[in-house]
Design brief:
binds protoporphyrin IX containing FE, monooxygenase activity, globular, three-stranded mixed beta sheet
């Protein structure tokens, strides 16, 4: 029997609750409300009760002590419209379906063996990016665009192997980036349909319609690729020019074979395969690119830190060598820079909303079943009780004890990838790619901002939180020979 009170919180207005008072900078507003009402508080948003948690100990209660209760999502209607009803890993409710697709993804695409098998694919893409950039020495480039396209190509290669389909898929990177931006924008603004179920069928803001339109666009890309691959696996392929995948099966092949298996405990459909592709292509690309951009912005803002990390690269990689993925474990200072950037600028400042499957007590208060529970990681990462000089960029703080700091969500003061059962499923790839891209950018070039410009570190809130102004920077010559990236 749950008898504790609901958490405290601001009153809001009748019917609409706190909805009209929501700010565009939600992460900051949620942090200020914690200063006023304490680390756990409630907001009524229309018909929906929302509880925000703002401290490491409260995070621990929901993602460790009571993780089973808090392992379902509270999906936005817009997200369901995009993912054929929530069939992807990110939005699927906790249960056998989610467990199966997450397991397939982690085991077949991101296990140590799979990542070793795709080592050269990642190397090829990063080296290609560096060669392209070399031809742009002295001109201004947009960092997040470069990082996005590199990551997109890596992911497409890992999905489709060295095939013609992979080449086709890679040719739509720029269009896909625009699509991902639009999707993130739609998911980041409050949608009346989420807070007043009775109004949902009217789709007042037109968000659901727009998402369905984008979903059709995605179908237009994935359907022909999947059809072509299905024909190929039946031996009717149109794979020309010796590009056919050799040896090991790529991830798409594995998924399509699972679809054909009649004995599978949880059968997987074509729609579910597409939803899973969305997880990988949307969940993986913009987050990675955003983090690369934040790190470069912090380094351009602090030239002494940039200099120090370039010295580390010169020392570990050598000025006569190009960066390889195997250098990564030795780049301790770069690793500390990444962690410090993840602390100050977590890509998902409020993670992904959770929905408890039963009422429970957290921080001494009742959280009723089906409440929207938000973990304010941005506040936790800047809590003056947990961090010395919390708003300063000091990578050294992560060098003192490396074992304590990883991305696995075991230290509740530092949760850039979340924690518990719903922790990011892509950590092994994200960690590799953010570091590999940055090491290559920083080792191959020196960087400066265009004449008369200043580095601006302000944020624009969104489900993925980006810089408010895209970072534009100019690469200049550093390594004498680009043959290293041939
Ligand atoms: C720097 C890059 C990345 C960051 C910062 C990041 C962060 C996150 C966060 C915070 C969550 C939600 C965790 C929670 O609610 O507790 C998440 C979920 C997820 N991420 Fe990532 N992610 C990154 C890259 C990737 C990549 C590369 C992939 C796939 C290739 C990926 C796939 C996923 C999936 C599938 C989920 C849903 C997990 C679930 O609900 O079970 N992410 N990510």
């Amino acid at each position: 029997q749950i008898t504790a009170r609901l958490p405290p919180g601001p009153c809001g207005l009748p019917i609409v609750g706190y909805l009209p008072f929501l700010d565009t900078d939600l992460h900051r507003q949620f942090t200020e409300l914690a200063n006023q009402y304490g680390p756990i508080y409630k907001l009524w948003l229309g018909k929906k009760l929302c509880v925000v948690l703002n401290s490491p100990s409260l995070a621990k209660e929901v993602v460790r002590d009571q993780d089973m209760i808090f392992s379902s999502r509270d999906p936005h209607i817009a997200a369901l419209a995009l993912t054929y009803g929530g069939f992807n890993i990110l939005w699927a409710p906790y249960g056998p379906y989610w467990r199966t697709i997450r397991k397939v993804f982690v085991r077949e695409m991101l296990s140590n063996t799979s990542l070793e098998d795709t080592y050269s694919l990642r190397g090829d893409e990063v080296k290609k990016t560096i060669r392209d950039l070399h031809s742009k020495i002295g001109t201004a480039v947009e960092i997040s665009e470069i990082a996005f396209l590199t990551e997109f190509n890596v992911v497409m290669s890992m999905l489709w192997g060295r095939t013609v389909d992979s080449q086709r898929a890679k040719s739509i990177g720029t269009e896909f980036r625009a699509l991902v931006f639009k999707i993130i924008e739609l998911l980041s603004k409050p949608n009346v349909s989420d807070f007043f179920p009775i109004l949902a069928r009217f789709d007042v803001q037109g968000v659901e319609r727009e998402m369905k339109r984008l979903s059709k666009w995605v179908d237009g890309i994935f359907d022909p690729l999947l059809e072509s691959r299905t024909r190929m696996s039946r031996g009717e392929g149109d794979q020309e020019g010796g590009m056919k995948s050799k040896g090991k099966k790529d991830f798409i092949q594995i998924l399509l074979e699972l679809k054909e298996r009649e004995d599978a405990a949880i059968p997987i459909t074509l729609q579910q395969i597409k939803a899973l592709l969305l997880d990988i292509v949307i969940g993986g690309t913009d987050t990675t690119a955003t983090m690369v951009e934040w790190v470069m912005a912090e380094l351009l803002h602090k030239p002494e830190v940039m200099k120090k990390v370039q010295e580390e690269l010169a020392d570990i990689v050598g000025l006569d060598n190009g960066v390889e993925e195997y250098h990564m474990p030795k780049l301790h200072y770069l690793d500390a820079i990444l962690k410090e950037t993840f602390r100050l600028h977590p890509a998902l400042p409020l993670l992904v909303p959770k929905r408890p499957n039963q009422s429970s007590i957290v921080g001494g208060y009742t959280i009723p079943k089906d409440t929207r529970v938000v973990l304010n990681v941005w506040a936790i990462h800047r809590d003056p009780e947990g961090w010395d000089g919390p708003s300063e960029f000091k990578p050294e703080r992560f060098l003192s004890d490396t074992s304590e700091w990883d991305y696995n969500g075991n230290n509740f003061k530092f949760l850039p990838f979340g924690s518990g059962r719903r922790i990011c499923a892509g950590i092994p790839l994200a960690e590799k790619m953010v570091m590999y891209m940055l090491a290559s950018l920083l080792h191959s070039f020196n960087w400066k901002v265009p004449e008369g410009e200043e580095i601006d570190l302000s944020e624009k809130f969104g489900i993925v939180m980006k810089k408010s102004k895209p970072l534009i920077a100019i690469p200049t010559q550093r390594l004498s020979s680009l043959k290293l990236y041939a």
